[in-house]
């Protein structure tokens, strides 16, 4: 098994969230404290460690999903190169070699949230 290391050094409060094994987590934080980056790290880790996981990264609008989540993910492309099978810029979808996927979606269009159910992980 290959190890993927991302260029990410969590702050102390982010480490607390990453180390917490509860199924659901509520993060209360102001602007620019790293909530989106932390959530992206969690979903990437889940996809890399759970074969065939089907995950969503949802923002209030699809344009916010593209500007925040998708653009952030693209910063890790070099680190994830060995694990990514394909990326689809228009669909905002990443497929990993282990069969897992991340889709970036907007909550403003409820029809885009219908269909296949997103994967919900159990505690580690």
Features:
single chain; 124 residues; alpha+beta
Written overview of the protein:
The protein contains four helices and four strands. The protein is an alpha+beta fold. It has a domain of 86 residues. A four-stranded mixed beta sheet has the order 1-4-3-2. Strand 3 and strand 4 form a beta hairpin. The longest helix has 15 residues. The radius of gyration is 14 Å and the shape is globular. The mean pLDDT is 86.
Query: What class do helices, strands and sheet pairing give?
Result: alpha+beta
| Largest sheet entry | 4 strands, mixed
Proportion of strand residues:
15-25%
Helix content: 25-40%
What's the overall average pLDDT, rounded?
A: 86
Q: CA-to-CA gap between the ends? A: 19 Å
What letter string, H or E per element, gives the SSE order? HHEHHEEE
Based on DSSP secondary structure assignment, what is the total number of beta strands?
4
Total count of helical runs of at least 4 residues: 4
Shape: globular
Radius of gyration of CA atoms, rounded to a whole number: 14 Å
Point out poorly predicted stretches. none
Spatial strand sequence of the major β-sheet:
1-4-3-2
């Amino acid at each position: 098994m290959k190890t993927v290391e991302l260029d990410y050094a969590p702050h102390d409060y982010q480490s607390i969230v990453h180390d917490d094994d509860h199924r659901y987590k509520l993060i209360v934080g102001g602007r620019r404290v790293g909530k989106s980056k932390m959530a992206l790290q969690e979903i990437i880790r889940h996809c890399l460690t759970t074969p065939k996981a089907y995950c969503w990264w949802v923002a209030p609008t699809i344009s916010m999903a593209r500007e925040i989540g998708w653009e952030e993910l693209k910063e890790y492309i070099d680190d994830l190169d060995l694990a990514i099978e394909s990326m689809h810029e228009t669909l905002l979808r990443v497929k990993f070699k282990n069969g897992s996927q991340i889709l970036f979606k907007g909550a403003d269009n409820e029809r885009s949230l219908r269909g296949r159910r997103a994967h919900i992980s159990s505690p580690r």
